[in-house]
């Protein structure tokens, strides 16, 4: 799934909210802390990680790509 942003970057927790995966940053933080979210194919524990155009994150078998 492609997520189109109008800014230079979006934080991982913000991208998860934007994609409709979670309803709040707190929910995103818990999923990320539990190791359930990968960024660019690698495990990630930084919930405010900046994602730029071309970056991807994966949750529950779905891959989300940041585009402009």
Layout: helices, strands, pairs:
Blueprint: E1 2-4, E2 9-11, H1 12-18, H2 25-33, E3 37-39, E4 42-43, E5 50-52, E6 56-59, E7 62-67
Parallel strand pairs: 1-7
Antiparallel strand pairs: 2-5, 3-4, 3-6, 6-7
Structural write-up:
The chain is of the alpha+beta class. The chain has a single domain, classed as RNA-binding S4 domain (Structural Genomics Hypothetical 15.5 Kd Protein In mrcA-pckA Intergenic Region, Chain A, Roll), CATH 3.10.290. 24% of the residues lie in helices and 35% in strands. The chain has helices at residues 12-18, 25-33, and strands at 2-4, 9-11, 37-39, 42-43, 50-52, 56-59, 62-67. The strands form 2 sheets. A 5-stranded mixed β-sheet has the order 1-7-6-3-4, covered by helices on one side. A hairpin with a 2-residue loop joins strand 6 (56-59) and strand 7. The longest helix has 9 residues, at 25-33. The chain starts with a strand and ends with a strand. 18% of the residues are buried.
């Amino acid at each position: 799934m492609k997520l189109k942003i109008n800014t230079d970057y979006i934080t991982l927790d913000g991208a998860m909210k934007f994609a409709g995966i979670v309803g709040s940053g707190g929910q995103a933080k818990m999923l990320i802390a539990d190791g359930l979210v990968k960024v660019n194919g690698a495990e990630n524990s930084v919930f405010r990680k900046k994602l730029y155009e071309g970056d991807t994150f994966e949750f529950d078998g779905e891959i989300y790509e940041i585009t402009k």
